[in-house]
Design goal:
Layout (H helix, E strand, L loop, with lengths): L28 H7 L3 E5 L4 H4 L20 H10 L4 E7 L28 H11 L3 E6 L12 H17 L5 E3 L6 E3 L6 E3 L9 H11 L4 E4 L5 E3 L32 H6 L10 E6 L17 H11 L5 E5 L10 H18 L8 E3 L2 E17 L7 E10 L2 E8 L6 E21 L5 E7 L3
Parallel strand pairs: 1-2, 1-10, 2-3, 3-4, 4-7, 7-8, 8-9, 9-10
Antiparallel strand pairs: 5-6, 11-12, 12-15, 12-16, 13-14, 13-15
Helix pairs in contact: 3-9, 5-6, 8-9
Bound molecules: beta-L-fucopyranose (FUL).
Beta-L-fucopyranose binds next to loops.
Length: about 450
């Protein structure tokens, strides 16, 4: 979606004379690959699609899962039209219904009416994603309102067995998503009661993450506390204007953090000079709910609203995880498909031509071949060397003087500045006004929004 041609800009041109040593926490290889994805999809699909609920209780009859025209290829093609590079499927949501024929429970697609119990949504979607060049990730809800074992140690073994199936039977998995919503009332094999777990200790997260690493070493792991990606602390799809790639989560009570027990707001900002590189993933649904509801067909976000979220997520150093829920046919609704396509076109048209591509660059001053009008500036740090810049300003040469047209803080993997009104100039200058180490920028690009 975004051309990386401009990354070739020489570092000395941006004021960097020798390769400096890394500063602070730096991204791992798998995180660097993840940073390139920028926009990808969530698919929320389960029995809830057929019961019109957001959280199934766990007592749903598996036979109600029966999409009439399920077409994984069509779903992936629609996501691809939005420029998405990965798709994450809710293989099991809180209701416990498994979208693949698991050996770990009978509460699965094998007991559904769909394809007489012979179907496998995980297989069809992972195959379709790969066939169209998208990566595939799995969401497996830790909270399981169907399982009689939930709350006991045996459930943790079952959760890991489910993870093992997903991570060994469906090829390359690029992301594993552990939800923070945990514990409460549910069916639990007929007990119909409230079960609370100790968020710190119950799941034994470090052991589960080790399992993921051993089975899919390239996969990034998401949770409220990482280890690779952090929750941004809201479900509205945006990071804070100042947003650091590093993060040290803090527990709700100010003590040790755990999935489901962190101070959400801190995820929005991250931690300057935090001990770990843990960039924010900004999740949001294209509709009010995470699952498809007929009543929400008229409330699909517009391409311009999605573009706005792009600036506030990708443009603040994170990624946009946009949920697009399949409907009862097993297709994306026409309204959603149109919004995806429109969003993809806006991004492609806006970022196709870097207006600074042919600039003459000297000491952070970009001399453009001619007077140019732009309203977007994209900056990137060379993040392999850590997050170094604390604040910067951008100036345009106008009427014989330098006019400052933007002031901002964090950069990281990507910072998008959208000016209130278009700027016209033939010279643009970047001034880093505060940095923890010598700045190491890898890009300054100019665009005009479509
Ligand atoms: C939350 C869940 O409770 C929602 O149903 C949804 O899956 C969202 C992405 O995460 O914690």
């Amino acid at each position: 979606m975004l051309s990386r041609r401009s990354l070739l800009m020489s570092l000395p041109a941006l004021g960097l004379r020798a390769q400096p040593s890394p500063y602070g926490a730096v991204p791992s290889k798998r995180q660097l690959r993840w940073h390139e994805l920028e926009v990808y999809a969530f698919l929320h699909f389960t029995v809830n699609t057929f019961t019109d609920k957001e959280w199934g209780y766990g007592d749903e009859d598996p036979s109600i899962f029966n999409p009439t025209q399920f077409d994984a290829g069509a779903i992936v093609a629609a996501l691809k039209s939005a420029g998405m590079r990965q798709v994450i499927l809710t293989c099991k949501h809180h209701d416990g219904f498994c979208l693949w024929p698991t050996k770990t429970t009978e509460h699965s697609i094998a007991r559904s009416s769909w394809r007489k119990g012979q179907g496998d949504v995980v297989k069809e979607l992972s195959d379709a994603a790969r066939a169209q060049g998208l990566r595939f990730g799995v969401y497996l809800s830790p909270w399981d309102r169907n399982s009689a074992l939930y709350g006991k140690p045996a459930y943790v073994a079952l959760y890991r067995a489910q993870l093992r199936e997903l991570l060994t039977q469906y090829g390359h998995i690029s992301e594993v998503w552990h939800d923070g919503a945990n514990g409460g009332d549910g069916y639990y094999g007929g007990a119909r009661e409230k079960r609370l777990i100790d968020k710190q200790t119950y799941y034994g997260w470090p052991e589960t993450w080790d399992l993921v690493r051993s089975l899919q070493p390239d996969a990034v792991i998401f949770s409220d506390v990482g280890p690779d990606l952090r929750w941004v602390g809201n479900e509205k799809g945006y990071a804070n204007d100042t947003c650091w790639e590093t993060y040290d989560p803090v527990g709700l009570d100010g003590g040790a953090p755990a999935p489901g027990s962190t101070q959400d707001k801190l995820g929005q900002t991250g931690t300057r000079n935090g001990s770990r590189w843990m960039p924010p993933e900004c999740d949001v649904s294209i509709r009010p709910g995470w699952f498809w509801h007929a009543a929400e067909n008229s409330q699909v976000k517009t391409p311009r609203q999605l573009l706005d979220l792009y600036y506030r997520s990708v443009g603040r150093g994170g990624a946009l995880l946009l949920n697009v829920p399949p409907d009862r046919r097993g297709l994306l609704h026409e309204q959603d498909v149109a919004a995806l396509k429109g969003f993809g076109a806006l991004i492609a048209d806006t970022f196709r031509d870097n207006l600074a591509a042919h600039a003459h660059v000297q000491d952070s001053v970009f001399t453009l071949p001619r007077e140019t009008t732009f309203n977007i500036v994209r900056l990137r740090e060379k993040i392999e060397l850590g997050q170094r810049v604390d604040a910067f300003e951008l100036d345009a040469w106008q009427g014989g003087i330098w006019n400052t047209f933007a002031r901002a803080t964090s950069v990281g993997a990507c910072r998008l500045i959208r000016t209130a009104t278009p700027v016209t100039s033939n010279r643009v200058r970047l001034r880093v006004t505060q940095s923890a180490a010598s700045p190491a920028m890898s890009e300054l690009a100019l665009f005009r929004e479509a």
